[in-house]
Amino acid sequence: MDKYAKRKFILGAIFVFIAIVFIIRLFTIQVIDSSYKQYATKNVLRKVINYPARGLIYDRNGELLVYNKAAYDLLVTPREVSTFDTTQLCSILKIEQADLMAELKKAKKYSRYKPSVIVKQLSTEMYAMLQEKLYKYPGFFVQTRTLREYAHPIASHMLGYVGEVNQSQINKDSYYSQGDYIGVTGIERTYEKELRGHKGVNYFLVDVHNRLKGTYNDEKNDSAAVLGNNLTTTIDSKLQSYCELLMKNKRGAVVAIEPKTGEILCFYSGPDYNANLLVGRERSKNYQLLLNDTLKPLTNRAISAAYSPGSTFKTLNALIALEEGTITENTAVSCFGKASSPIRCTHNHETPITLVGGIRESCNPFFWNTFKTIINKYPTSEEGYKKWREHILSFGLGQTLGTEFYGESKGNIPEASYYDRYFGKRRWNALTVRSLSIGQGEIIVTPLQMANMAAVIANRGYYIDPHIVKAIEDPDQSSRKLSFEKKVSMIHPEHFTKVIEGMQEVVDQTNTRYTAHVEGIDICGKTGTIQNSHGSDHSAFIAFAPKDDPQIAIAAYVENGVWGARYAAPIASLMIEMYLNDSITAPNRKALEKKMIEANLLNPNQPK
Amino acid sequence: MASRNNIWANLDWLTIGFYVLLVFIGWINIYAAVYNEEHSSILDMSQRYGKQLIWIVAGFVLAGTLILIDSKFYVSFAYVIYIVTLVLLAAVLLIGSEVKGARSWFQIGSFAFQPAEVSKLATALALAKYMSSYNFKIEKLQSIAVIGAIILAPIMFIFLQNDTGSALVFAVFAFVLYREGMSGVFLFMGLLIAMVFIITLMLAPLVTIGIMTAAAILVYYFMNQKFMEAIKALGISASIFFIFWLTNKFLKLGFPDTRIVLFSALLASLIFGIYALRHRLKNLLLVIVVYISLVMMTFIVDYVVNDIMQPHQRARIEELLGIKSDPLGVGYNVNQSKIAIGSGGMWGKGFLNGTQTKFNFVPEQSTDFIFCTVGEEWGFAGTTVIILLFLALLLRLVFLAERQRSVFSRVYGYSVACILFFHLSINVGMTIGLAPVIGIPLPFFSYGGSSLWSFTILLFIFLRLDASRMEKLSY
């Protein structure tokens, strides 16, 4: 009927063609391409991290040292932000408007969909105020985190502090993500894996406005946060506090160890800092202040200071000579006092003098002679020195003592090769290295090593690796006791008797008795005065008590403390008294305590 | 006159079946798209799905009513309906209310009415009436002018209302005209223009014109099968370009490269044009004319895109062609729509289980983006069924149109099929990123009384005409 009737096929074909194109396209995006499914999941899933509370830290008596407080981070999801009253928000948060804008810009740059932290660690009051007004700020929300809190801010160097992870830590351990906290120093660092617990995650379905619409996949992909493990430390917080009181305004370190177990009772490095300063919003500001402080309060002197042991070291030389049989308790040495050579004696005492007296009087000629006999026992000085060094190392010197001390220094007991390099092979002898006889010269020890030295003497020949944490408690209340290695020195127990007798006489008979003798407690100790070319000499003291059943071994080191008996000995003895008697009662002891507390040795201009 | 019973019996129930099926599936998907646990009943009248049910029932009543009206009415009143519609289109410009930037709605109480919806139907009727008039010849200049006027008048008003989407629908009448005898060249030209449009936007002008030159030479070669002449032409064109280019470069005339290309193209065309005229090469002349128009087109496209189109329209086209990608801005709707459909997989996530849908990631999902809900919850199986259902309806309508004895009914029937086809292509095409985002509804599916009713009326007038196709329609 009309010549164009055939065109119905062309039009029909166009319809069919478009339908086929659509079906092919639909097949491509619906069946072949799976990326849209991922996008859809990404759209609706919101991952909420549950941060577990960090493990608690207790002292040896179960007293809480470190716990957690809630902190509130303000986060923002840039896409959901609409116009809001910036002035009001800034006044609640106490920040500058420009800072808020900068943070918002940063968040937007990071992601428009993912939340970013705008303000960290709001105070509880700020949070309370903000919570009421939060509805006015769409896109902003608060996430609860936990921060460290300290019952009594003591033992800051031992505990260490917590900070935000940096990028290299994130790269190293995939557990961490931006903004997580991690132990930076102290046992917070060494026991990080125990303390941190395990983050939990919840997946929620959200709508386009990021409103929660329910759980995802019947919570099958969710995991609960696992609390961190609690640590029981060996610290006696009463003794620790007392130590911090006595060491106020002094540079130095005090370490006390229970000899039988190696448990560290007190661990102090001075000057210290208040652990609370490194928590919360002021953290970075405070950290900078501490870092730039010329007194270096962040330095952990107890394990990293490079000290000479001074005369405290004489006890070891005596023990080695006895073990090597190069002296006996009756070996007598003549002392010519200030006229002695090669090392003069600074004390007035009887002459000739034997072992007990030598220790009591800290007679330099006696120990020079003793040292010489050890070195010269062997065909060459090098061999003698090597033997001597072997003995010294068996006291735990020249090596790190534990795995749980972050930043522990090994100290230094030079190898024979060091002197070979310095003087030339076979071109040195006992005389060349004579300073070692009296604890001066190249040897370097840390206060922890000195305390351990005292513990070895107290134990008559062995030590347990000194440690701070003795048990780890899982959240399900099962507790793991940690065990530590016992290390035996090369000195046989019988050789200790006379040395200890000498140490007791130091405390009971010399001038040191005025500052170190405690009625009713047999304290054995040895003072040390370390020459210092930059100011007053340093004061050192090692001791243990009671003599027959040692409960505590201690090393005190007070920089610029003039001489051993002046500060280190009284502080150590007061601590021993406090630890064993629980109080200081005698009037003269009270007066000494007061004097110690009030002494300020931080003035750099004090007389030499 | 046929009895009433006869009319019901003569109705094409297959088409009505498709219609009812599509409307019903649409309603179910609107329910899924705006599903709300607090109002979980599909009959809840406070929700869109409840309201849509009212529109549907009313639509059925309307359809029944239309069938009761004598088919002669539409023939007699075709022009009246058309003119009234034009008046309404003009009136809405003055007293209409603005929705989403388009002043195209009459708001009477809670009832809103969009004259543009009716204008498709009115134009179809007017076209049918004019083209079925005695002694109508589509080749006549006068006919072309009248047809042009009938189609362009409503387009003009709708453009003025700033409702580009609805205006574009009228382009589909070209298919109807083609069926009635308009030269296929026009369709071909349309396709060519579309291609030039896309190429111009996607490629640099230099490349575009280069491609066109190569194409022209290639076409000429296929027409004449003279290889050497093609090579010569290529050589001459290239030489002209290089002479211009070198002159410009060394004399530092500072013409932009596009200008150089244009000059070379025009000069080469001139040379070949004179050559063609002197040797009476009709084919060559045709190629040159088409070539020049296409080259000019690229500059027109540039002008249209940069100076006539509104920024959001330009952005949508650039997004579609992948020239710019902004999945959070202009491309957000299409991106989310593709995610919704794409995440449906083979069998879909199940009824009411679509997360994109349920959590409102796709905007306008009960209206323009309703196809997403189908794609997400019913998967490839569902979308294919819907596409095939629509295709079946369209082919059925072509079949029905072809069996009409009157030109009026046939033209109108094709108009219905083509209008539905356009809506389907653009709407579905936009949800899967094959067509630009033009806010037009999916027929029978999208939420909204105005759209459902106008498609119902459009379809049922044709079914009524078809039912009485055996009668002789008088003017």
Structural features:
heterodimer; A: 608 residues; alpha+beta; Penicillin-binding protein 2a (Domain 2); Beta-lactamase; 2 domains; seven-stranded mixed beta sheet; five-stranded antiparallel beta sheet; 19 strands; 36% helix; B: 475 residues; mainly alpha; 19 helices; 3 strands; globular
Q: What does this molecule look like?
A:
The complex is a heterodimer of chains A (608) and B (475). Chain A has 608 residues and is α+β, with helices and mostly antiparallel strands. Chain A folds into two domains: 47-231, Alpha-Beta Complex (Penicillin-binding protein 2a (Domain 2)); 237-598, 3-Layer(aba) Sandwich (Beta-lactamase). Chain A is 36% helix and 18% strand. In chain A, the strands form five sheets. In chain A, strands 2, 3, 4, 5, 10, 14 and 15 form a seven-stranded mixed beta sheet that branches. In chain A, helix 10 packs antiparallel against helix 21 (568-581) and helix 14 crosses helix 19 (496-509). Chain B has 475 residues and is mainly alpha-helical. Chain B folds into two domains: 4-182 and 329-467, no CATH class; 191-308, no CATH class. Helices cover 71% and strands 3% of the residues of chain B. Chain B is built from 19 helices and three strands. In chain B, strands 1-2-3 form a three-stranded antiparallel beta sheet, covered by helices on one side. The model of chain B has no long low-confidence stretch (mean pLDDT 86).
